[in-house]
Amino acid sequence: MLLLIGSTVVAALLAVAAAPGVAAFATRLGMVDVPGGRRRHPRPIPRPGGLAIAAAFGITILAFWLVDRVAGQPFLIPEEVRSPRFTVTALAALLGLGVGLLDDVFELRARWQFLGHLVVAGLIVAAGIRIDFVNDPRNGDALLALPLALAVAFTMFWIVGMNVALNFIDGLDGLAAGVAAIAAFTLGAMALLPQVNEPFVAWMSFALGGAICGFLVFNFHPARLFLGTTGVTFIGTLLAVLSIFGTSKVAAALLVLGVPIIDTFYVLARRAFQGKAPFAPDRGHFHHRLLDVGFSHPQAVLFIYGVTLALGVLAFVSSGRVQLYLFGAFAVLLGGAVVALAQRSPKAGELDPSLYPEDPD
Predict the structure, then answer these.
(1) Are strands 133-135 and 45-46 parallel, antiparallel or unpaired?
(2) d(CA 189, CA 203)
(3) Number of neighbours of residue 281 by Cβ within 10 angstroms
(4) Residue 300, SS3?
(5) What are the DSSP E strand ranges found in the chain?
(6) Can you give the pTM of this predicted structure?
(7) Number of C-alpha atoms within 13 angstroms, CB side, residue 138?
(8) Could you give the CA distance from residue 48 to residue 197 in angstroms, rounded to a whole number?
(9) pLDDT for position 141
(10) Tell me, what's the pLDDT at 37?
(11) What are 186-226's pLDDT values in tens digits?
């Protein structure tokens, strides 16, 4: 527990310390969102805030590792936490960071972002990370073995889908980062359960959650630094990979990230039904619906935080099969809520120049 608490606190403090430097660096290079058109914030805001999260996370992990190396024995990192998966985790994080940073530098079109996510997913699968088993919804907590081709396809879908879902929900200050932090801490807590026993995943998850919390000091409304595609892809890739390790807590991640995942599904389905491009921007997201019916910016974000936290608690106390059932029930509930809210905001599917500045899709 000392390792987990220490890593969380150190990562949070490092993110707070790194954020102003990242903002200054981005401003100097012109990597800012300038007010105008759909962007209504009062001043230019630096975009690649995910660099602060990545730096805080990476330095924390490296610092704890170096202390143990100097000590010549397990000191800060107990033996049971050590894992050969560290290299592939670092590879996944760097791939996500690199693809996201390219988008923040060159402001790529959505199709190129999507291609980048496919490349990241393909390289991670090639490194040996796959979802080989899934929970059997018909037989308690039993696991179903997937054929190799299906395991590869599902893993690719999972990694890409995680990034797209976080990208879609990144439409209000602090929203995507806060939801991701709750998901990271939930996955970390679940990794400590006796039936899971994945201390390495717990360490990575708590360090990531701490780094995101430190960044939120600058990202919560009114934001002084945006998450950017850098942060979305870095966090999304790490969450996807960490949920795959061990006994495959994909069902738990599916439930705790129910809001962005289900929102993404409904938005894509609605756009396809209306004959729109899948990544065409509009006000059809769940967080926009909340704004349209009178929620303030912070209220909408905090409400979704509360829903995500409740889903995280349900994921923690339930089994894999129950998690799948709860996800299905929540999908129906959220779908009904979106339809009901849409009746009160009939223009929600139309492009609106007053969209919040971080709505990237």
Answers:
(1) unpaired
(2) 10
(3) 17
(4) helix
(5) 32-33, 45-46, 133-135, 143-145
(6) 0.91
(7) 1
(8) 35
(9) 64
(10) 54
(11) 999 999 998 888 999 999 999 999 999 999 999 999 999 99
